[in-house]
Design goal:
Number of helices of chain A: 0
Helix content of chain B: under 10%
Strand content of chain A: over 45%
Mean pLDDT of chain A: 90
Structural class of chain A: mainly beta
Strand content of chain B: over 45%
Low-confidence stretches of chain B: none
Number of strands of chain B: 11
Largest sheet of chain A: 7 strands, mixed
Radius of gyration of chain B: 14 Å
Mean pLDDT of chain B: 92
Helix content of chain A: under 10%
Oligomer: heterodimer
Largest sheet of chain B: 6 strands, mixed
Distance between the termini of chain B: 41 Å
Radius of gyration of chain A: 13 Å
Largest interface: A-B, 24 and 24 residues
Structural class of chain B: mainly beta
Order of helices and strands of chain B: EEEEEEEEEEE
Shape of chain B: globular
Chain lengths: 114, 114
């Protein structure tokens, strides 16, 4: 069983479109995260949620809207996609509400905006 | 603002060699430091987590040290194997701007040649 699963694995789309990436964790964790890894492989946090509540919003454009229907799911919706949004997006989860323990990562979603 | 630097950016060694990867961070007010491994096209796997009160952690052939006062950590890999080839990421957890988050380095790409 995959602990943190993301879908889709690959996403190719045109500029201006709206797309969503889904994430689910079956670890029973309370905290979930979205990270962006750019073309230079730099990994940076975007959002974190604890028990469906937004904890971190790292000055991400408001075209990005995370949604947490329950604590096992954290989806990422992106409006009006731009070329610069092309990156690999990783979902992660951890047990501790302050994230002081190990974070478990999904395999990533490679987004290409044409 | 916390910055994490990893040196070298890439390292190529013959199989069987012992090696050290370096990580430095600018703000010593951290909760913990984690070392991750990233394989191409895959997510991150946590290798070791060192709490701020600890000096080192060991797991199999891996040993990570932490010197919080000097802002440094090392990951020692003993008797390297081709299967160790991957990108190794260092990340520190601290309170930045009122929110607690992981800040990553850009990674060291390790190649172990048979």
């Amino acid at each position: 069983d995959t602990a943190v699963s993301q879908t889709p694995k690959y996403l190719v789309t045109q500029m201006g479109n709206d797309k969503s990436i889904k994430c689910e964790q079956n670890l029973g964790h309370d905290t979930m995260y979205w990270y962006k890894q750019d073309s230079k492989k730099f990994l940076k946090i975007m959002f974190s949620y604890n028990n469906k509540e937004l904890i971190i919003n790292e000055t991400v454009p408001n075209r990005f809207s995370p949604k947490s229907p329950d604590k096992a799911h954290l989806n990422l919706h992106i409006n009006s996609l731009e070329l610069g949004d092309s990156a690999v997006y990783f979902c992660a989860s951890s047990q501790d509400s302050r994230g002081l323990d190990i974070q478990y990562f999904g395999a990533g979603t490679r987004l290409s905006v044409l | 603002k916390q910055e994490v630097t990893q040196i070298p950016a890439a390292l190529s060694v013959p199989e069987g060699e012992n090696l050290v990867l370096n990580c430095s961070f600018t703000d010593s007010a951290i909760y913990n430091l984690q070392w991750f491994r990233q394989d191409p096209g895959k997510g991150l796997t946590s290798l070791l987590l060192i709490q701020s009160s600890q000096r080192e952690q060991t797991s199999g052939r891996l040993n990570a040290s932490l010197d919080k006062s000097s802002g440094r950590s090392t990951l020692y890999i003993a008797a390297s194997q081709p299967g160790d080839s991957a990108t190794y990421l260092c990340a520190v957890k601290g309170a930045q701007g009122g929110s607690e988050k992981l800040v990553f380095g850009k990674g060291t790409k390790l190649t172990v040649n048979p």
